[in-house]
Structure formats: C-alpha cells, structure tokens
Amino acid sequence: MTQVMLAVGTKKGLFLGWSYDRDSWEWEGPHHSMAAVAAVAIDTRRSPVRLMAGGRNEHWGPAVFTSDDRGRSWAEEPGGSIAFPADAGADVEQIWQLQPGPESRPDEVWAGVEPSALFRSEDGGRTFELVRALWDHPHRPDWQPGAGGQCLHTVLPHPTDPERVMVAMSTGGVYVTEDAGATWNPSNGGVRIPFLPDQEAEYGQCVHKVVRDCEDPDLLMLQNHGGVYRSADGGKSWQEAHEGLPAIFGFGLTRTPGPEGAFFIFPLSADMSRFPVDGRAGIYRSVDGGRAWSDSSTGLPESGFHTIVLRDALTTDAADPAGIYLGTRSGEVWGSSDGGTSWNQLVSHLPDVLCVRAAVLS
Amino acid sequence: MTVRVTLELPSVLADVAGGRRTLAVEMDRPDPTVADLLDLVAGVHPHLVRRLRTESGQLRRHVNVYADGADVRGADGTATVLGQNAVVLVLPSVAGG
C-alpha cells in the first residue's frame, strides 16, 4: 500500500502529514520547533527515504537536519552541515533550498543559501562544500538582496546530464553551469528587470522561481519579479508566457510529472499589492508549456483570501493522478488529488508555511 | 597557569551540552578570552558552540554573553579576557514573534 507524505516547512518548525488516500491526513509536529524551515527535501532515491530540513532558529542560527526513519529521529552534524570556509568572509544566514541531484548521482544533494551561494553534498546531504566558482563569480558584488534577503533559492540539476545545473537567485537572476560547477554563466536573455534603468541587463534579475519540465529538460518556466517566462532551449532565451493569467507577479510555481503533466502557478496582483487578485485564491494551469494558462481553482476560496503562496510552497507528488499542494502564509495547506481539477483544505492553523514537499512512499 | 571558568547556559541548550546547564572549564593559557573558552568547549560540545557563534567566529545576533555580569559586546566581544574563576553566562536575547 502506498502512502503520501507531505513535509511542510513553517516559520516555527516542520510538520509532517501522512495519507493513504490523499483525502484524510494525519499530522505531526512541529519538528525543529521555533526554526524557520525554509527548505525541505524528501530524497526518494535512497532506501530508506531520507528527509532533509534546512532551518534557522532566530537565536541559534541555521542548520540542516536529516532523518532516515521518516521523522522519528533527526541527525545534525556536530560541526554543522553547511558553513562558509574561513577565507570567504561570510556566514550562512539561512538555507533556502535543498535539492537532491539526478538519479545517476544518488549521494549528490545541492543547497542554496543566503547570502547567495551554492553548496554541494556528496554524502546524501549530511555535509556540504561551497561551490567556489559561483561564489568567486565576478558578478557577485552586483547581486543585491530582495525583500526576503539575498538568497539562492532554486537549484535545478539536469536529470540526465549531471554536468549541467541551473540556479536562480534574488537578485542576480539565473546562472547555468555546463561543466559541473567549474564555470557559471548568466542565462537571463529576454527576462526584464523592471526595477533597474537597464531593464535588459545580462544579469541582476529578481527571479522568484524556475521550474523544469519533467518530460523535456530544456523546457523551463520562470516566475520573475514582474513577468512569467518560458524557455524551450534550456534557458538560453526566455519568452513572455502570460496568456490567460490575471497578473504577472507571484512566487509559487510547480509542474506535475508525467507526459500529461502541467505547470501550475499562483499569481499575485502586483509587486506593490502582494495579494491574490480580487481576494480570490486563484491557481492557474498550463498544459501546453506555458503558451496559455487556465483557471484551475475549483474548491479554493472564492473571496476573502488575502494570504499568499511563497516560492517553495507550491509542489506536487508523483502519484497518478498527481497530487498538487499549496501552503499559505496563514498556515493552511490545500491539496488536489485529481491533477488540479478540484481542491480541499488539508490542514489549517499552522504557522506561516514557507515550503512544501510531497512524496509517494511504499 | 590554569584559569578556571564556569560557563552557565540557558536550559534550552542543556540538550546540546551533555544535559548540563553549567560547565566547569580549565584553560591552561595566560589571559584566556571568551573565544578561547568557546574553542575549548567546541571540542567537547560542538553542537552547543555552533548555536552560540557563526562559522566566522561572531556571536550570533540574538545570543548575549556576560562575563562576570558584563555584556561582552560592551567590552572586547569574544576577545574579552576572562579572569580566574570568571562566570560566563549565556542568555538568549528577546527576539522572534
């Protein structure tokens, strides 16, 4: 019998949800109480499945925790999992992303942190080492913090070519390596920078999230700080992909797996009005790679919804049909078990939801 | 010369200090500092010290350390020298919501 696990990182700890039918859920937590868990990963490449949580306690700083028994116990490296080397002159403020590598590298895990930097683990996420070439990049002095901090929040390993990895940061934009991290190049062609005089600069974009298509690794969707874009060439060029959306600002973006999968996005009104459009919890689906979007919000609140979905709080599982999950800053998690056709509230009254991940476990 | 120092911790940190709130530390060096104390304690309780200071050696923003009642930030920070039988008190500051 399969079981679906939801890992919900909140401002005050990690909550775990379990369900056999994706209808009724059992919840436990908080794990890592009082830590803002902004990154969580469920690594299904290994057996037993490994849970990873990256959090920051306001007093005691950031840490990565791992669990190989589905959250019953957690391990923390004595000296810490992620730290800048002494000569970097920086301290890790928060862990924004924990991303398992491709299937061919079962011990590889990537971490994006604040201040913007990328770390790589070769032991399944227990210890990480700074990716020097990106840290030493000549553009780095120009990267500036967004409202959430200067963070590298997205890591997209290529599923079949482990030499290729894409990262995204706020601000700074998208960077790509094609030689396993030895060199990095900006990959923002066509993505506008609405807050700078030179709106077509090579880098400096405030990219909020990038998602890779599960079937075509060169197809990517990008939520920018003002604009939704698609790329069909692995990020070499980007084109606007707004058709059917009520607004072009937002954070949450995901893609369901499988040939019939779709992209899902949760728009917000605007930079200066960070609310759902018209107080409605509107989520939009694209089945054609972002050429057009259609409303997919049946069951979500139609009015009075003034909370938001953060960049990693919209996710999917790998069941058939796919489950889609969104968490809100008001502590709710909503789910769809029919590919986004209808939605139900799974839990409420949690602290602010920062990230959500889901996995099907046997 | 051996300098004896007592490190007092809030109860919330006892789990990462072997279950204790008070650690007696002996330092065999002249004019030991708060940083020396933390270096020594890190060898036994690395989880504890990582919660008190960053990887670059700075006290965490919301961690206050008092040496014989005086906030070390008002003295020489982690370079504050500790005298014989000094009491070093760690307290979390008011933070969060």
Structural commentary:
The complex is a heterodimer of chains A (362) and B (97). Chain A is mainly β and 362 residues long. Chain A has one domain: YVTN repeat-like/Quinoprotein amine dehydrogenase (Methylamine Dehydrogenase, Chain H). Chain A has one helix and 27 strands. Chain A has one helix at residues 132-135, and strands at 3-10, 13-19, 26-31, 35-43, 50-57, 61-67, 94-100, 109-114, 117-121, 129-130, 151-157, 165-170, 173-177, 185-186, 207-212, 220-224, 227-231, 239-240, 249-255, 263-268, 284-286, 294-295, 314-316, 324-327, 333-336, 344-347, 353-361. In chain A, the strands form seven sheets. Chain A has a four-stranded antiparallel beta sheet, with no helix packed on it. In chain A, strands 7-8-9-10 form a four-stranded antiparallel beta sheet. In chain A, β19 (249-255) and β20 form a beta hairpin. Chain A is globular and about 50 Å long. By secondary structure, chain B is of the alpha+beta class. Chain B is globular. Chain B has one domain (3-92): Beta-grasp domain (Ubiquitin-like (UB roll)), CATH 3.10.20.30. At the A-B interface, loops of A face α2 of B.
Distance, first to last CA of chain B: 46 Å
Q: Helix fraction of chain B?
A: 10-25%
Largest sheet of chain A: 4 strands, antiparallel
Q: What's the CATH topology name of chain A? A: Methylamine Dehydrogenase, Chain H
Give me the number of helical elements of chain A: 1
Question: How would you name the oligomeric state of the polypeptide chains in this document?
Answer: heterodimer
The rounded distance between the terminal residues' Cα atoms of chain A is: 6 Å
Q: Compute the average pLDDT of chain A.
A: 96
- Give the C-level CATH assignment of chain A: Mainly Beta
The tally of domains of chain B stands at 1
Which stretches of chain B of 5+ consecutive residues score pLDDT under 50?
Answer: none
Please state the overall shape of chain A, judged from the principal axes of the Cα atoms. globular
Q: Quote the beta fraction of chain A.
A: 35-45%
Shape of chain B: globular
- Backbone structural class of chain A: mainly beta
Q: What's the total count of β strands of chain A?
A: 27
Q: How many domain units of chain A?
A: 1
The CATH superfamily of chain B is known as: Beta-grasp domain
